[in-house]
Amino acid sequence: MRNVFLFVRRYFNFLFFIIMQAVALYMLFQYNRFHEAAFMGVAGEVTGKISKQYNTIEYYFQLKKTNELLIEENQKLRNLLKNDFLPADTATEFVVDSIKVDSLEQYRRYLYFPAKVINNSVTSQTNYLTISRGFNQGLSKDMAVVSPSGIIGTIVNVSANMATVMSLLHRQSRVSASLLKTGETGSVEWDGNDPQLLTFRNIPKSAPVQKGDTVITGRYSAFPPGQPVGVIVDVESQEGSNFYVLKLKPSTNFFNVQFVYAVKNLQKEEQDALEKATHKQE
Question: How far apart, in Å, are the Cα atoms of 135 and each of 138, 152, 246, 260?
């Protein structure tokens, strides 16, 4: 203790200068919007770079699991290839399709951009991910983000080479989803408590719901339809209500997200413009 007092006494002027400097900087950034914005921008860039370096080291020890996920996804894609199917041997005439594959590109709706996760949180009530791709690589705000196992969230901010994603584990997250078995549509949200449980609302009690049923994204969601959301683990039937409150186990393991896909809806601008023009006519 004596050495501590001697140290403080010896460097009192320097320590007092540091404290006053910190107070001055705090007041500058707290009460000046321009300096606050500049500081947050620099701090975000520095934090992103530090997280990226940390994630590089962590990623090295997760290569085995990442490779398993990539192999699983490649298997699913290969099972959808047209060349893997043979026509039934009952046709009496063979017809060659004259339409080239490339000519169908104009009908593509979704385009996928792979990205690496460099930062992720699951312990807050407002969780976000940071991915290593920005507007220089084709990303924009409000794009959906999915993983090989299920949906992740929605992009809320984009810089030149990075983007932040509002996780499904966010109190303000709302996703339109449907029961795979029967097609009833409801809303998936998170109550901010258990990161391994989601809440699925607005499913009528007339629907045949059971534990183990799969929930996927619906046609009115910002996500491509049919993406896995979760599996029902609990069915709550509240008195005085015509709807179930369902608990889901997320399809995505948010504790170990390494790679994701940002999804661009190529028809979104046209749809938004059409709906906006329609509202103006009312």
Answer: 5, 19, 37, 16
Cα Rg of the chain (Å, integer)? 25
Contact 72, 229 (CB under 8 A): no
Rounded to two decimals, the pTM is: 0.66
**List of domains in the chain:** 2-60 (no CATH), 175-252 (2.40.10.350)
3 state DSSP class of 10: helix
160 token code pair: 């030149």
Q: How many CA atoms lie within 13 A of 31 on its CB side?
A: 6
Provide the b/e sequence for 90-120 (b: ≥16 CB within 10 Å): eeeeeeeeeeeeeeeeeeeebeebebbbbbb
Distance CA 145, CA 166 (A): 9
Mean pLDDT of 190-200: 93
